[in-house]
């Protein structure tokens, strides 16, 4: 019995013969016609007993991988049924290709099981996971502390060129974005303040409002957020890529602490640069507020300046200065931590970078809240 | 058995800014042959391949595929020509967020028109050809460098391209896998009629599989020899070529 295949111009004939089950392939075998099935061969093998299966080519005009894929399936079928398969009638190339594909046995036990845990177990796993991450962070803080200790004793192995590079990246190269954000924040605060204060005829207090808000909170927090998005992310991506490319392993095996070599320069750079950026942000923010107050509200510059100076004792700048130094250390630390925790793939670098930004911003807000409480407690 | 010229490289100049990598490079690759680009490290072999597959634009000369000058046709046409290529990059260049099966399946699902079940069957066969049957669900980061390279080879072969470009395919492979790869190249040429351009300096591979080769010289920065590797080894007038092909 013959089963001619009718799909497109591919020919596949299956017929019992004296020496076994004979399969003839011909015509055009192309992916465009889909893959041929093995149902016809299975039916014939079910119907009778054959000493072997012989495949020959007749008028085979063209074959892409759809033919060897089918032959490999036929090979597996014959092997499962214990029937010898003879591909010598196809020419050496195709027979060898099939032999090559079956030359290495399939690796068993590689399937991935989806383990369905009870809900309580899931909660437990999540809690343990979080605790481990917290443990990693504590370890990071400890290692960083030791590294700072080595620096103070003059035993830390770091390149000061890296510190300078990180300073350039986080300081001068961030001025444009800090300028835009700070000016807009100052202007927005002046606008909103003026709208409300005008109701009470107290427009002049815009100077107090903008001054306190910018110096005490906004300059430090907004600069911190901008730097977390720009420099913190860059730290995580850079160290994460080094992790993925085994560069950190190379440092470790060389006996160099990656905390001294990679983390410390970045933490030093941001801790030094953030207070300076904060002062710059204050100047721009206060200037933006003053611009709106004088142009839009008609408050004379001298009067605005006098009220602002009166409302801003110097220690307010000191508070902001200290806060921004802490934010800088936090952003740099989180960026480096996420980079060191990174996996060894491009996707992992992306995750590390995102996590560095999100965690950095979160820590800035938490630290700012802690500062607010402490300042309240000490009546500052 | 080889046919008419499939690729013609004529007076090709390659440079990065003012740094000239190679100049006046000339050779032809015939249909159905295995062509090897060889030369010492840093001579510009991989750069030549990047120019041939459209990743770098030459500063002079031309690369012709059949009747078309690759860099003179519009970009859309170049995209169509590129579909005839299968490329294995030096590091494998697998997409790290996808499993091996997904890596090999992507070109098939984009261009073959096969159903998901059929694609899975083809993927399994292609991975089997490179000795990775059963590793379908693995991510590249879970594999060794050699396995990643073999998986990259399976992806390069996914669409049965007319022309396969391999950049250092044997580098990082164990001797068994390397020998198996040589056999695979020969089978691809013989059974599917593929034209293969391979960048390598593995002498055993060069002599085992190459029909023709070109030697890029790092000193003169041009192609100084073109022919069958054994002929070049025995008869080439350039001492650098003979020294490269019969060291010691």
Number of strands of chain B: 10
Mean pLDDT of chain B: 89
* Oligomer description: heterodimer
Task: Kindly provide the radius of gyration of chain A, computed on alpha-carbon positions and rounded to a whole number of angstroms.
Answer: 36 Å
Summarize the biggest pleated sheet of chain A: 4 strands, mixed
The name CATH uses for the topology of the largest domain in chain B is Rossmann fold
Broad structural category of chain A: alpha/beta
Q: How are the strands of the biggest sheet of chain B laid out side by side?
A: 6-7-8-3-9-10
Q: Give the CATH class of the largest domain in chain B.
A: Alpha Beta
Main β-sheet description of chain B? 6 strands, mixed
Radius of gyration of chain B: 18 Å
CATH A-level architecture of the largest domain in chain B: 3-Layer(aba) Sandwich
Describe the protein's topology.
The complex is a heterodimer of chains A (380) and B (248).
Chain A: E1 10-17, E2 20-29, H1 39-47, E3 53-63, H2 66-81, E4 85-89, H3 92-101, H4 119-152, H5 160-170, H6 175-198, H7 206-244, H8 247-253, H9 258-295, H10 301-311, H11 314-340, H12 346-377
Helix pairs in contact in A: 2-3, 4-9, 5-9, 6-7, 6-9, 7-9, 7-10, 7-11, 7-12, 9-11, 11-12
Chain B: E1 5-16, E2 19-30, E3 34-38, H1 45-52, E4 60-65, E5 68-69, H2 75-82, E6 85-88, H3 100-111, H4 116-129, H5 145-156, E7 163-167, H6 175-192, E8 195-199, H7 203-209, E9 212-217, E10 222-227, H8 229-235, H9 239-245
Parallel strand pairs in B: 3-8, 3-9, 6-7, 7-8
Antiparallel strand pairs in B: 1-2, 1-4, 4-5, 9-10
Helix pairs in contact in B: 3-4, 3-5, 4-5, 8-9
The gist of it:
Chain A has 380 residues and is α/β, with parallel strands linked by helices. Helix content of chain A is 68%, strand content 9%. Chain B has two domains: 5-84 and 161-245, P-loop containing nucleotide triphosphate hydrolases (Rossmann fold, 3-Layer(aba) Sandwich), CATH 3.40.50.300; 94-148, no CATH class.
Report on this model:
The complex is a heterodimer of chains A (380) and B (248). Helix content of chain A is 68%, strand content 9%. A four-stranded mixed β-sheet of chain A has the order 1-2-3-4, with helices on one face. The longest helix of chain A is centred in the middle third of the chain and has 39 residues, at 206-244. Chain A has 380 residues and is of the alpha/beta class. Chain B has helices spanning 45-52, 75-82, 100-111, 116-129, 145-156, 175-192, 203-209, 229-235, 239-245; strands spanning 5-16, 19-30, 34-38, 60-65, 68-69, 85-88, 163-167, 195-199, 212-217, 222-227. In chain B, helix 3 crosses helix 4 (116-129) and helix 4 (116-129) crosses helix 5. With 248 residues, chain B is α/β, with parallel strands linked by helices. Chain B is globular, with a radius of gyration of 18 Å. Chain B has nine helices and ten strands. Classes of the chains: A alpha/beta (380), B alpha/beta (248). The A-B interface holds A 31-32, 34-35, 63-66, 68-69, 72-73, 91-94, 96-97, 100-108, 110-112, 343-348 and B 96-97, 108, 112-115, 118, 121-122, 125-126, 128-129, 131-141, 157, 159-160, 180, 183-184, 187-188, 190-192.
């Amino acid at each position: 019995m013959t089963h001619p295949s009718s799909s497109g111009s591919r020919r596949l004939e299956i017929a019992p013969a004296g020496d076994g089950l004979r399969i003839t392939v011909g015509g055009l075998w192309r992916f465009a016609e889909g893959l041929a099935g093995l149902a016809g061969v299975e039916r014939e093998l079910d119907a009778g007993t054959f000493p072997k299966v012989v495949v020959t080519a007749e008028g085979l005009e063209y074959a892409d991988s759809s033919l060897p894929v089918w032959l490999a399936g036929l090979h597996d079928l014959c092997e499962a049924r214990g029937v010898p398969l003879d591909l010598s009638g196809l020419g050496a190339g195709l027979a060898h290709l099939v032999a090559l594909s079956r030359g290495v046995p399939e690796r068993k036990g590689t399937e991935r099981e989806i383990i369905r845990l009870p809900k309580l177990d899931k909660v437990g796993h999540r809690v343990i996971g979080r605790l481990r991450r917290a443990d990693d962070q504590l370890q990071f803080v400890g290692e960083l502390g030791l590294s700072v200790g080595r620096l103070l004793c003059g035993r830390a192995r770091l390149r000061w060129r890296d510190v300078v590079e990180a300073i350039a990246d986080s300081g001068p190269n961030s001025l444009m974005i800090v300028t835009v954000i700070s000016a807009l924040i100052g202007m927005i605060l002046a606008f909103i303040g003026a709208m409300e204060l005008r109701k009470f005829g107290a427009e002049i207090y815009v100077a107090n409002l903008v001054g306190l808000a910018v110096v005490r909170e906004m300059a430090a927090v907004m600069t911190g957020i901008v730097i977390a998005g720009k420099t913190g992310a860059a730290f995580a991506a850079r160290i994460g890529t080094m992790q993925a490319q085994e560069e950190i392993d190379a440092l470790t095996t060389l006996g160099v602490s990656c905390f001294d070599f990679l983390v410390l320069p970045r933490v030093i750079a941001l801790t030094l640069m953030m207070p300076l950026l904060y002062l710059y942000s204050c100047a721009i923010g206060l200037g933006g507020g003053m611009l709106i107050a004088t142009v839009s509200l008609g408050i004379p510059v001298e009067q605005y300046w006098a009220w602002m100076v009166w409302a801003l004792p110097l220690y307010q700048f000191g508070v902001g200065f200290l806060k921004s130094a802490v934010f800088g250390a936090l952003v740099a630390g989180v960026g480096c931590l996420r980079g060191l925790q990174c996996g060894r793939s491009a996707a992992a670098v992306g995750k590390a970078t995102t996590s560095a930004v999100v965690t950095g911003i979160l820590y800035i807000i938490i630290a700012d809240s802690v500062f607010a409480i402490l300042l309240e407690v000490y009546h500052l | 058995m080889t046919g008419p010229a499939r690729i013609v490289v004529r007076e090709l100049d390659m440079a990065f800014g003012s740094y000239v990598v190679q100049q006046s490079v000339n050779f032809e690759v015939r249909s159905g042959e295995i062509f090897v680009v060889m030369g010492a490290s840093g001579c510009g072999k991989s750069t030549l391949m990047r120019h041939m597959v459209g990743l770098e634009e030459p500063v002079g000369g031309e690369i012709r595929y059949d009747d078309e000058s690759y860099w003179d046709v519009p970009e859309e046409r170049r995209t169509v020509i590129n579909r005839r290529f299968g490329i294995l990059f030096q590091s494998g260049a697998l997409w790290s967020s996808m499993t091996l099966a997904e890596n090999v399946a992507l070109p098939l699902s984009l261009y073959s028109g096969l159903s998901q079940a059929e694609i899975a069957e083809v993927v399994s066969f292609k991975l089997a050809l490179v000795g990775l049957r059963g590793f379908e669900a693995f991510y590249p980061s879970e594999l060794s460098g050699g396995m990643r390279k073999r998986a990259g080879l399976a992806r390069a072969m996914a669409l049965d391209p007319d022309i396969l470009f391999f950049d250092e395919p044997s580098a990082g492979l164990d001797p068994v896998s390397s020998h198996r790869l040589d056999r695979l190249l020969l089978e691809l040429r013989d059974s599917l009629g593929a034209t293969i351009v391979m960048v390598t300096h593995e002498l055993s591979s060069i002599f085992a599989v190459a029909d023709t080769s070109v030697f890029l010289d790092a000193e003169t920065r041009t192609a100084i020899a073109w022919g069958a590797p054994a002929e070049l080894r025995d008869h080439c007038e350039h001492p650098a070529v003979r020294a490269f092909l019969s060291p010691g």
